């Protein structure tokens, strides 16, 4: 089977309504797939039921059935029974902690490898990489490991921006990713800006949207990835 994974930088672009900019990217993956399970574990402060309602409203035009994994007595069976998997944003550490807690990590990896589509945004995209070591989030809880799904053989950094507010003296995102490449110079990191996404279909990988991405690896720092680029070579 062919891996299908859509990894969105964010749930919104600018002031657009929730998930609206994602609809053209998500719609093709829903063809012939009616029943989806949503994993809200990253949405701590929002509450899982509220989060589920928000996602249902945002994706209402797709005419798919979306259940929350927290509504099922057996989360693992919910993953098995679904036609596709949605994983939302929020806190990446809590998301990964819960995936380990319910023993879902290997199961999701196996289901996606067998052809079940995976759609994530923000934290949901972070966990699709090799590890969550390049998330932007605060480590509010300690998962058993930082090792993630590995749907892509590199690191992701969603919401990428190198903006530094006037008077703010903390490190920029580029400086933080430089730190990662200093301790792990062999593992690539791809930063994707809001409004963009990575789409993996088997051995094909593309940067979607009209914004450039950025590559960090060893001495390569903030190398521009043109919008629409074919990144399939990074899967080798």
Structural commentary:
The protein is an alpha/beta fold and 236 residues long. Helices cover 24% and strands 21% of the residues. The chain contains seven helices and eleven strands. The protein has helices at 23-26, 48-58, 75-81, 92-101, 105-113, 123-126, 173-183; strands spanning 4-8, 35-39, 65-68, 84-87, 118-121, 155-157, 189-191, 197-201, 204-208, 213-217, 220-225. The strands form two sheets. Strands 3-2-4-5-1-8-9 form a seven-stranded mixed beta sheet, sandwiched between helices. It has a four-stranded mixed beta sheet with strand order 6-7-10-11, covered by helices on one side. β8 (197-201) and β9 (204-208) form a beta hairpin. The two termini are 17 Å apart. The mean pLDDT is 97.
Distance between the termini: 17 Å
Count of DSSP strands: 11
> Hey, roughly how much beta strand do the residues contain?
15-25%
User: Overall pLDDT, averaged?
Assistant: 97
**pLDDT < 50 runs, ≥5 residues:** none
What is the share of helical residues?
Answer: 10-25%
| C-alpha Rg (nearest Å) | 17 Å
Could you give a quick summary of the protein structure above?
This protein is α/β, with parallel strands linked by helices. It has seven helices and eleven strands.
Features:
single chain; 236 residues; alpha/beta; seven-stranded mixed β-sheet; four-stranded mixed β-sheet; 11 strands; globular
Write the layout of secondary structure elements.
Blueprint: E1 4-8, H1 23-26, E2 35-39, H2 48-58, E3 65-68, H3 75-81, E4 84-87, H4 92-101, H5 105-113, E5 118-121, H6 123-126, E6 155-157, H7 173-183, E7 189-191, E8 197-201, E9 204-208, E10 213-217, E11 220-225
Parallel strand pairs: 1-5, 2-3, 2-4, 4-5, 6-7
Antiparallel strand pairs: 1-8, 7-10, 8-9, 10-11
